[in-house]
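INFO  loader      accepted 1 record
INFO  loader      residues=226
INFO  predictor   begin
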Amino acid sequence: MTRTRARRRIVPFGDSALMVVLGDGVDPVLNARVHRLAAAVRRLSGNDPRFGSPVPAYASVLVPTDIHATSPDDLIGVLSDVVDEVDGDVGAQASEPMLHAFPTRYGGEAGPDLDELAAVHDLRPADVIEIHASADYRVYFLGFAPGFAYLGRVPDAIATPRRAVPRQRVAAGSVGIGRDQTGIYPFEAPAGWHLIGRTDVTLWDPAADPPALLAPGDRVRFVPIG
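INFO  predictor   done
INFO  writer      dumping tokens
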């Protein structure tokens, strides 16, 4: 069964999850709605073992489910009611997001693509640094690699498509730009974004609880150093 209302869709995702799609695109208002829904589903899962821990994305929430415990229609009905409650609680105040400030070294060995990216936009490297560090970025969701946060929105003046040829490895803490988003590689990994700087802050620690420093809905600010 698929349930659709307005621009909302609740559809099966494999044989052990449901996907709640609330809209399309990358939009901070829509993403805030996603996080409110994820919080409501998290509370639901504490009381109803048929539902697991939700995984929010840009405009959707993946909800693990126990389809053997009941029919898919029943699970979809419960989730539909939860979405209605979240959307109906228009007076609810979102919790204050946590703001993280990351000291960042721009250019040089830390940011090998800074000069090239600046040239593409007919800017000086110092202009790119100033523009990138002038914005507070929203953590839309975590993905690609453990602890990797998709941050947005990058100002239009420096938004840049991904590299044509990704690098095989980049250092942990590398700060990159891909289209209108920016991000920090939490550990050494392949990278397809343009690297403009690096931070020494640890974003992923398997021994910590939680292991990821950033969480969906947090805010990030880059502070130039050096």
